[in-house]
Each structure stands twice: as C-alpha cells, then as structure tokens.
Specification:
Layout (H helix, E strand, L loop, with lengths): L25 H15 L4 E2 L1 H10 L3 H11 L13 H13 L2 E3 L5 E3 L1 H12 L5 H10 L5 H14 L4
Antiparallel strand pairs: 1-3, 2-3
Helix pairs in contact: 1-4, 1-5, 1-6, 2-3
Length: 161
C-alpha cells in the first residue's frame, strides 16, 4: 500500500503574527491624535467626539470633504461620525505616555511632551503628508459649539417615546 506523505506529520503549521494596517497601529493613532489636537483645537484641548469626528474624516477624502462642509456652516451636510475603538485605545496610550492629559471637563489637552512630538512629526516632510494637509485645511474651523449643535440634532432626531 502506498504511503501518503501528508499523514506522516511532515507538514507543520505555525501561526504567524497578523499584519496590522497602519491606521490601526497604536503609534500611528497616537501621532494622529496629537496632530489633531495641535492643528485643529483651540489651546490644544478638544472633546472626545471631536477627536473621533476628525479621525474618521482622515480615513477618506469624501469623509474629510463632508467634515469641511459641515465646519463651514452647512448643517445639512452632517458628517458621518464613526466611533472607532482604536481612537479610544490610542487616547489611553497617549495619556500613559504623557502626550495628553484629561481635564476635569472631560476634554483632552495636549501636554508639552505631546507638542514636542507634533513638532518632530511636522519637521519631517515625508511623514503623515496627507494627514498634515487635511488637518491644515480643517484647521480650527470645527468648533466645539458646532459639534454640540450636531449632538443636539442627534438627540432630537433619534429620541423615542
């Protein structure tokens, strides 16, 4: 009877680490959040919702265009807000690294160490190019007041008896 080589145990399957897409890597998200706070917030402080909105907008050109229209007073063009767990995880790491601190109000504030990180990122021309361009286009146009208006719309549109 012929011997089947597959039955002798010569083949071994070893689990290899899965590749993590760049936009879900903690180091990338920490850097992204620090840049958002440096470029798009007043006095380096912003809300959790604002961080999620801008982070989601950085994923595609269409999302960023919608956020820019919304920031420019077009309430009819409400952006899609995606609450990404990787943003929350990156915030936890950012606080642990000392790049960000949470204020009593619940908002997050960039620390001196975080500003130093963003200075280093901005000094490298070929690092996070599209992010820096998009964040500069948005700049400080998206106010916390505007975000509050959007959350009020959510409350009224999605309220049930």
């Amino acid at each position: 009877m012929p011997v089947n080589p597959l039955l002798h145990g010569d083949i071994i399957f070893n689990a290899k680490p899965d590749a993590v897409p760049y936009n879900y890597r903690i180091s990338y998200k920490v850097s992204q959040i620090c840049l958002i706070m440096r470029i798009c917030s007043f006095q380096g402080s912003c809300s959790l919702i604002k961080l999620h909105m801008i982070s989601a907008a950085l994923c595609t050109r269409n999302n960023m265009d919608k956020l820019l229209k919304f920031a420019n007073e077009e309430l009819s063009n409400s952006p899609i807000v995606r609450f990404d767990p990787s943003v929350n995880k990156a915030l936890t790491f950012s606080v642990a690294y000392g790049f960000i601190m949470q204020q009593k109000s619940g908002n997050y504030k960039l620390t001196d160490k975080g500003r130093n990180l963003t200075d280093q990122i901005q000094a490298v021309d070929d690092l996070m190019i599209s992010e820096k361009i998009d964040l500069s286009r948005l700049s400080k146009k998206l106010s916390e007041k505007k975000i509050q208006e959007l959350t009020e719309i959510w409350r009224f549109n999605n309220a049930e008896d």
